[in-house]
Amino acid sequence: MADKPHYHGHRQRLKDRFLKSGAGALADYELLELVLCLAIPRRDVKPLAKELLDRFGNFAEVINADNERLKEINGIGDNAVVALKLVRDGAVKLTQENIIDRPMLSSWSALIDYCRASMAYNKTEQFRILFLDKKNVLIADEVQQEGTVDHTPVYPREVIKRALELGASALLLVHNHPSGDPTPSRADIEMTREIAEAGKKLGVKVHDHIIMGRSGHVSFKTLNLL
User: Fold this and answer.
1) Do the strands 126-132 and 216-219 form a parallel or antiparallel pair, or are they unpaired?
2) Spans of all domains in the chain
3) Deepest of 112, 137, 146, 161, by most Cβ within 10 A of its Cβ?
4) pLDDT tens digits, residue range 174-183?
5) Dist CA 159 CA 129 (whole Å)
6) Which helix (H) or strand (E) covers residue 141, if one does?
7) What digits encode the pLDDT tens for the residues 20-40?
8) Could you tell me which CATH number the domain at 103-219 has?
């Protein structure tokens, strides 16, 4: 009987470490190895894992990379892309479950985790609205607009109109800065004030506007911009 390929023993040791101690016991490239070996079982995937990190920077950047950019790496096909995206979308789903049926203002860290997982690594700007009831429990989570790498058109009247359609009493505005820097622009500040003023006239309160970036996030409330 032919000997098993050399990477089989290495792969089993990774699995054992993961099962015993979790992801914290593994380096980024080792976590990627485990994901990739599920999609590519008959190949040593350590070189692929390291090439992915060389190209994209870290584990989070890899699982959030565009499908076509991932496929630019020789050896990454549809199965590998599906495996990587399952990890990413599983993380989003998990963090989303942590904010459903809970008052948003008392579940702040869970909210930030969800926004980071779902938006922080987007390559274009996305404007998301969380519609809340009188108890600040989530009614709906909708992407209102998607734009370019540095601009998303937002129309205050449409935001408030949608809030009234849903019977929302309050809003949390969220958008991302693909540049990575969450510092609000003058346009961000002006748009937020317009939405807040329009909502105030019709009994819809804007609790906060959060800007997500790779390097962190900012809150308009904390910055005294609302």
Assistant:
1) unpaired
2) 7-93, 103-219
3) 112
4) 999 998 889 9
5) 8
6) strand 138-146
7) 888 888 899 999 999 999 898
8) 3.40.140.10
